[in-house]
Specification:
Layout lengths: L1 H9 L1 H9 L4 H10 L10 H14 L3 H18 L4 H10 L8 H9 L5 H12 L4 H4 L2
Keywords: Membrane, Transmembrane, Transmembrane helix
GO molecular function: GTPase activator activity; small GTPase binding
Organism: Minutocellus polymorphus
Length: 137
């Protein structure tokens, strides 16, 4: 739910398109996040290694949310021209592997602002709990 809400915030047109066609973000995002993007067969090893390096340096899962959002941002023109079945096929196979090139994907991901506080606030919003940042005050 956190990633779905992040898409609504960062890519509202695409989020509306997903909603209109009944696409549950969890269906494709679960595989992405559970495997830290190894789920995508076309994901270059160099991209995965670079993401994981960032993850280890930052000590935060932010990079995975930024990369997931970047994949959708870069794929948005294609996704907006598909209905449910076409979107699912695309998101599970990523046939345009050029989008997954580390220079392209990670440059885009680094332009997407996602903070730990933002993720905590979204998590609190979707779970109905008080944000961690509010309890620190």
């Amino acid at each position: 739910k956190v990633f779905e809400r992040l898409i609504e915030i960062k890519l509202p047109v695409l989020a509306d398109h997903f909603d209109h066609h009944g696409l549950n973000v969890g269906i494709f995002a679960l595989g992405w996040f559970q495997t830290l993007f190894l789920y995508l067969p076309s994901m270059p090893t160099a991209t995965v290694c670079h993401m994981w390096d960032i993850w280890l340096v930052e000590r935060s899962f932010k990079i995975f949310f930024r990369v997931g959002t970047a994949i959708l941002f870069l794929s948005q023109p294609i996704l907006l021209n598909h209905e449910l079945e076409g979107m699912m096929t695309y998101l599970n196979t990523m046939p345009d592997a050029t989008l997954l090139n580390p220079d392209i994907l990670l440059a885009c991901a680094n332009q997407i602002k996602v903070t730990n506080r933002m993720l905590e606030d979204i998590e609190a919003e979707v779970t109905g709990q008080k944000p961690a940042s509010a309890s620190a005050k």
